[in-house]
Amino acid sequence: MEAYICETCGTQYAQRAGEQPPANCPICDDERQYVGWKGQRWTTLEALGRDRHNRVQSEEPNLTGIGTEPAFAIGQRALLVQTPAGNLLWDCITLLDSATIEAVRALGGLRAIAISHPHYYSTMVTWSQAFDAPIYLHAADRQWVMRPDPAIVFWEGEDQRLWSDLTLIQCGGHFEGSAVLHWAQGAEGRGALLTGDSIAVAADREWVTFMRSYPNYIPLPRSALDGIVAALEPYEFDRIHGGWWELTVERGAKRAIKRSAERYARWIGDAER
Predict the structure, then answer these.
(1) 0.90 cut: is pTM over it?
(2) Which residues contact 193 (CB under 8 A, 6 or more apart)?
(3) Crossing angle for the helix pair 98-106 and 124-131, to the nearest 10 degrees
């Protein structure tokens, strides 16, 4: 029997269809998220796949986006990073069907999965089982795992080197364990940062922003902004791939983060205007 999935955030739970569904979704009850306007609702992968499919599209050489259409839950897309030492799925989406499994295998499969923060945990265990891949999550966000599994690797500290040119960086802010992925060979060798919600690309794609909650408009304090900028200082990168299609800072990404943090600080009153 399939596991229940929260329709608002897309997280898969340990409870199985046919049993009583969870009474609530702690991820949606948290102030960073929200319970759907029609109340707590549940679905399954089988039901989700009846009227949705995944779009698989190249974002740049050795980087492929995977996103669900029509959009489901938060609507993010995942990113598959290809390296000679194996592929990494960065962030995750809820829908996994046979067509997606075939497409990912054609690209070389998965060596591992790494996720920026709990809003994108989605059906990570199902993905892990399909590709026999471990899941890297920061230990500070352990409490938000709603479907525990032996494949989950809780990393600790400020960074986690994976392989080749891939490094996970804990930058905090959105969640205590919020992380980004540094891909040194991305952006034609200039370096790329894959950010999820930890650093959100703005609509003009020249600036970024930082929030405790995006749907509820809760800002971060100056201390969190400074922590994000400091965590990224040792790394070189020229491009940012955000959490949704086409939200990419193509060039000057490291400068964009610094000036965006300065602008943010001015408007929350922690710097001179």
Answers:
(1) yes
(2) 180, 181, 182, 183, 199, 232, 235, 237, 239, 240, 241, 253
(3) 50
Q: Per-residue pLDDT tens for 76-123?
A: 999 999 999 999 999 999 999 999 999 999 999 999 999 999 999 999
Angle (nearest 5°) at CA 35 between 181 and 40: 115
Cβ count near 198 (within 10 Å): 28
Q: Is the dihedral of CA 153, 68, 65, 228 positive or negative?
A: negative
Strands (E) in 115-261, as ranges, are: 135-138, 152-155, 159-161, 166-170, 179-183, 192-196, 200-201, 208-209, 211-213, 218-219, 239-242, 248-249
Residue with tokens 């491009």: 239
pLDDT per position as a tens digit, 21-64 = 999 999 999 999 999 999 999 999 999 999 999 999 999 999 99
Report which secondary-structure segment, H or E, holds 48. helix 45-48
Take residue 168 and report the two structure tokens written for it: 């996970």
Q: Which residues contact 169 (CB under 8 A, 6 or more apart)?
A: 158, 159, 179, 180, 181, 182, 231, 232, 235
Task: Report residue 201 CA to chain centroid gap.
Answer: 13
Q: Which two tokens stand for residue 53?
A: 């499919």
CB 215 within 8 A of CB 35: no
Q: What is the DSSP string of 83-130?
A: -TT--EEES--S---HHHHHHHHHTT--SEEE-SSGGG-TTHHHHHHH
| Site of tokens 């040119």 | 165
